[in-house]
Each structure stands twice: as C-alpha cells, then as structure tokens.
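Feature request, filed as a ticket because there's no other form

It would be nice if the structure record came with a short human-readable summary line next to the tokens. Right now we just get the raw output. Example of a typical job, pasted below so the devs can see what we mean:
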Amino acid sequence: MTSNSGSTQTTPSGAHDEELCLMGVTRLADFLDFVRKRAVGGPDMDKGELVAIWRDASKVFDGLQTTEAGVADKPDVRPLTPFLQAHVDELVTLPHFQASFQSVPVAFGMVELDKLVVYQQHITQSSVQKMTRTLQTPITEDVLAGLCLPLTADTTGFHVTLEDDGRFIFSSGSHDARFLGAQVINPADIKGFAVSGHPQTVIALSVGFTTNILNVVRYGPRMVLNNGYHRAMALRQLGVTHAPCLIQVCSHWEEVGLAGSNEIYENSTVYFSAARPPLLRDYTNGLLTKSFTTWRTNKEIRVSYEVDTAHLAQKT
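Raw output as currently delivered:
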C-alpha cells in the first residue's frame, strides 16, 4: 500500500489567491522557492529584486532582536470560563482527540495571541478573510469554542475523484485532509459488511481530517503556534487578544519533536533561542511581509495497494 498527497493547481478563471509571505525571518532559499513554485508568474520574477526585498525585511527583523528582545517570553495564559471548560471536558473524551494528543502532557487555557511564536512562512489571505467576514463581533463563547476547539471536522468539499482497481484519489479544498493510517479490523465489528467469501480480517485505510484544533507547543518560557494560523490571525484582526487553545507541555527537548512540526524541532534556535523570534503579529508588519498572487490549490491524497500471493513449501 502506498499513500501520497499533493496540491494540484486549479486553472479555471478566478482561481487565484493571495498568500502573505513572511520575509527576513525565514531562510532566503525557502522564500525564493515559494515564489518560484506558488506565485503566478513566479519563475519570471526578477531574482535580484526578490533578494533585495528579503534583505530589507531581514534588516528590520535583525533590529527587533535588540528593540524587542525577550518579548516572546512568558505569554499570558488565562483560565477558561466555565462554558469553555465544559466544552473541553467533552472534547478530551473523544477517541480521535485521545489518539491525536497522547505523546506529551496537555493543558488548556486562554492564550495571548500576540506573543505566540510562528514557524509558517505564509498565510492564505482568503482563508483569513472568509472568517473575518462570517464571524460576528463580539464573538460569543460557543462560536469561539467551535472555531478554536471543534468537536467535529468540516468535511465540506471532500470527495472521491477516482476509484479504480486498487487505486483511489481523494480531493479536498482543505489542506487539513490527509491519509490517517492503516489498521487491522475484525470483520464482525463492521455493520453491513459483505464480500464474496468469509473474511477473516479487514485492512482499513483511513483518509480524512486531523483533530484540527488551535494548539501550541510550550517549551521553556515560549509557545510556538503549531496549528490554527488562519484562525489565530482572523481572531486577532477582530480584536481578540486571547483564544482558547490546547497547550502541549514539553518538559524535555525531545518531546518537542513528538508534539510539533519538523520545522519547529529542526530549527529550534530560531524559535526558542533567538532574542526575538518571529511572532504572529509580524504578519501585520508591512516591512516584514509581501503579498503574492498565487494559484488556488486543492489537496489531493492518492492511495493505492497491491496484493501478492505466494505458495511456499512447508519443509519438516
């Protein structure tokens, strides 16, 4: 069985988006690679001009190392309200939550958005704008709970695009769609299951959505936003200063590798050691960002399997 996923460009008229790219903070090579692969007309953009733009942003970010040293340390975390705590009490009982967050201890709280360290290099503007248009202010607690700590997934737009002789392709407008793993299941546990024979076991290949909740990785005095960038940005734009969040509490460095993305773990100096790491609020600083017109993409997950049967002689 093999599984892979990719983003396919949609080409109909109006299939453009805007990506807000954080510069100077991230590696120059990554910035140039993003522009070349994702921006409309990116391969034809002047490389020298792009490097100059990044260099100017880098100078600004370097200056923040002195003027805002230590600003990311010890973000404010407030207790949940009784309503939000009741919501969390339900969330933590769900099997998909327990399976997703079993590696390190977790806690919940109202986390200060402006002091969250960020690792993602770009944010899709339409995703943020959709939320700011649809959310009514002041945001009620039930809306806040459903947005930041949803109990179910938004499955809108998920569908099967190909089912053919051991090969399946699934498509989704959400980049949260992915292959969720394989497991062996007792056929008796599947209602309505019928095949042309007497099955002894079933191999289930699951495709769907993660437990997509706002969460941070905490190590030492800092918190890195691990998931929920567009929601955090939308809430900040609407004047929200603290949001309900799952906190993955890492007391040992190796736990960070289990809780967070590879980028957080592999480039720890940027996020945990720098005097002033990249912050969520940097996306609103025009000296550190640049917007690019990009192709809107769909997430595509391709799953295939093969069966090989052999007859082996039993030698006694």
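Something like this underneath would help us a lot:
The first strand starts at residue 2 and ends at 9.
The CA atoms of residues 9 and 297 lie 5 Å apart.
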